[in-house]
Amino acid sequence: MNTAKPETIALFCLTPGGVTLAQRLQTALPLTCFTSEKLLQPGFIPFGESFAQTVQQAFSQYSALVFIAATGIVVRVIAPLLSDKLHDPAVVVMDERGEHVISLLSGHLGGANDLTRQLAGSLGADPVITTATDVNHLAALDTLAARLDATLKDFRLAVKTVNQMLVSNQRVGLWWDADFASSAALYDTRGFIAVENLEALPELDALVCVTLRNELPPQTIQLFKLVPKRIVAGIGCRRDTPPQIVAELLNQHLLENHFDPLALRAIGSIALKKDEPALLELARSLQIPFNIYSVDQLALHEQRFPASEFVRATVGVGSVSQPAAWLMSDGKLVGNTLKQQGVTITLGVSDRC
């Protein structure tokens, strides 16, 4: 999934005026600027085979693309590259005089709306944002999800439904579980109706719950569970353990600890397991990072946990899953360590967004 905070920004300019404007922007933002050979200036990169070919490469390599060009040209060059709002980068367009900055693609999840405001602020320009929730000065579910690094079941449909309800003046409640209630004020929730108690709801058409829980009290209205990705899992396993076994045990352990499987943020293990098929498949199928730790890194925290001499003789340290989870969660472990079928799994909760 793309991010609401573009970390790498490619800028394309096609005219001398565009190059001049790009040079102004370089002083305010970390930009990789591309232009034609004839307009090349220090700090700029020439187009490759062509402008279109360079854009095609950048589309999958950068979090955001900024064009100082006519909107029509940009639409034509990016049209064959479009996938969906979950994966497309932010795309922003501006005129070479720096009077208008347009959020063109991935306004919420990709962060184009925020980038548009930032660029417009740097130039004193007019930000042009057309997403319905922004136009109506309302929050958006996909923006909230991006800020929280959270996800939902049936993400596209849930976002479409809730955002449509908000702009249609329907009553959408927002409840924060205790783990997140203290930080609720940090997020844009305009248009949502604050809910304090799930047992005593105000009159609502739908309810969004920010929680890690796998189960919530049943409701008579539409309920959308927004699940922040905060759970990490340290995993140790015998060589060539079938991927299905590891996946099933991990899911079992999450549910035993009352966590929604969508809350899983990352898995981790010892460097010796960097090519373990079951762990690689798990990370690939869940689209989460697979963090690798050296023996020395794990050994720093080995004394905190019971050690296995068999494991030590096999991999060089007496415990794998527990110190790995400790490192990923800054020491915030939860529940007991699962030990079944040659697999060990330890869970932790990370505070990092």
UniProtKB/TrEMBL annotation:
TM helices/strands, residue ranges: none
* InterPro entries found in the cross-reference section: CbiG_hydrolase, CbiG_mid, CbiG_N, CobE/GbiG_C, CobE/GbiG_C_sf, GbiG_N_sf
Residues annotated as domain CobE/GbiG C-terminal: 231-347
The answer on whether this UniProt entry bears the keyword Nucleotide-binding reads no
**GO function term, MF aspect, one:** cobalt-precorrin-5A acetaldehyde-lyase activity
Keywords, in A-Z order: Hydrolase
In what residue span(s) does the Cobalamin synthesis G N-terminal domain sit? 54-134
User: What's one GO BP annotation on this UniProt entry?
Assistant: cobalamin biosynthetic process
Q: What class of enzyme is it?
A: hydrolase
Hydrolase listed as a keyword? yes
Q: What is its EC number?
A: 3.7.1.12
Recorded hits in SUPFAM superfamilies, A to Z, give: CbiG N-terminal domain-like, CobE/GbiG C-terminal domain-like
| Protein name (Swiss-Prot/TrEMBL) | Cobalt-precorrin 5A hydrolase
